[in-house]
């Protein structure tokens, strides 16, 4: 029988050839791209890290809740004044969402760091998420603001 002390504590079916992105780089995606962009990036990174299915669903759930909060912020702050704090408020919601999602990824990220491998660059996927998904969120929230 194997010694319990020598048994690894983190056992996951992780593809070691797939490198994840740095966690804090996701904060830039949150700030510039919004809730949808950071949620997609966080979910993809969680898959790369080998985060469990329940935690991955939680990441998506946090993103969904944050999108609803962003919509509520748009409804509450939309008025005739075009210089409202709407952009700042929605960015704050996106960054707070990102922080929760980072917390869910952190244990497996630490396991990746212990392997000593390098991270993959987030430049390409991050810019694509900021532009594509950021515009999608902008259209959705602007449509909501115009409808009310």
Itemize the secondary structure elements and their pairings.
Blueprint: H1 25-33, H2 35-49, H3 53-77, H4 86-115, H5 123-147
Helix pairs in contact: 1-2, 1-4, 1-5, 2-3, 2-4, 2-5, 3-4, 3-5
Description:
The protein is an all-alpha fold and 148 residues long. It has one domain. It has five helices and no strands. The chain has helices spanning 25-33, 35-49, 53-77, 86-115, 123-147. Helix 1 (25-33) packs parallel to helix 5 (123-147) and helix 3 packs across helix 5.
Query: Based on the structure, what is the oligomeric state of the protein chains?
Result: single chain
- Estimate the global geometry from the Cα principal axes: elongated
- Order of secondary-structure elements: HHHHH
What's the Cα radius of gyration?
18 Å
Estimated share of beta-strand residues = under 5%
The N- and C-terminal alpha carbons lie at a distance of 67 Å
The helicity comes to over 70%
How would a crystallographer describe the biggest sheet? none
Q: How many independent structural domains?
A: 1
Going by helix content, strand content and strand pairing, the class is mainly alpha
Count of discrete alpha- or pi-helical segments spanning 4 or more residues: 5
Low-confidence stretches: none
Q: Compute the average pLDDT.
A: 90
Number of strands: 0
